[in-house]
Please model this.
Amino acid sequence: MPLPYQKSKIKRLISISGEHIVYAYGDQHVIKFPSGPIHLVSSKDALNKVKKEDQLQQKYLKQYQVPYQLCFYKKNGRPTYCVIQKYIQGRAFKIKDLKNPNLKQKLRSLIKANNLMYKQTSYILELFGIKSLFFHFWLRKMENVFVVNQNQLKIIDLGLISDKAKITKSLILRLVIRWAIKRQTQLLKQYL
Model:
């Protein structure tokens, strides 16, 4: 089975996060390969998780998404995936952006949609990114929410977290996820 992407288009490394390794892909896209702990446990469970999260984001957070394509394929006989996403120019949402009433209103709308998704499904988008969850005192930003084109907000991360999903079988992973959800709830009070 051929790969759903062209290796020759993969360029420089952009970032390594808890769930993906991200590279520039061609001139106008990025490509994300799975790297998080869930992908090491069970590729079948991880693929089902990705598909479910994609459906939830399409339903609850579509207006904030950067256009992307999920590509499923086999690597060394194991099912896996990659994400090809439009590259956007922007920067992480900073707490000082709350001084802009337009951005503040858009952030409140995003948080409201995210909270509704969590209430109805137990899945939530982790807005801050792992570094900002731990070091928000110094960073004071949401690494997964970008300000683009002056006053638009876009989500650059596709991963959702849930403390109730069956995929979260590991006690340690479940405790980390519960902490992340609680920490995000605490930090969001500064943004509302």
